[in-house]
Design goal:
Blueprint (H helix, E strand, L loop, with lengths): L22 H12 L4 H11 L4 H10 L4 H9 L4 H13 L7 E4 L2 E4 L4 H17 L3
Helix pairs in contact: 1-2, 1-4, 3-4
Amino acid sequence: METYGDKVRLAIIHFPYRYRDYAALAAQASEAARAQGKFWEMHDLMLERRKLDRESLIAYAGELGLDVARFTRELDSEKHLPRVNQDVELARRLDIYQTPTFFINGRKLVGERPFEAFQAIIDEELAKAQAAGN
């Protein structure tokens, strides 16, 4: 994102693996953190720590300085589950079967890739847009 500034946009959708313990809960926790402006911080902490049970997620919320009572309420009430479920439906329509999956102007990349793989496609797509006068 730093390389391209406002020329690219990143959109994240949730696709919790249904056989992975706590995946759906973790997706909801990231949305509860987003509601308090800390999506990426929660995302990074969950990836770093890898413990995604309810108690760990609530502890992370405290570490991040979130309103823990609000975070816990939203988690327990499944306030953000509809958003997660919408994302899962979108993922199915896009034929996503693995995470991470990336789309760059409709071009699908499945799995982790080095920056250069993204850079090559982004540069091609920007060149196409420039040639088309966009």
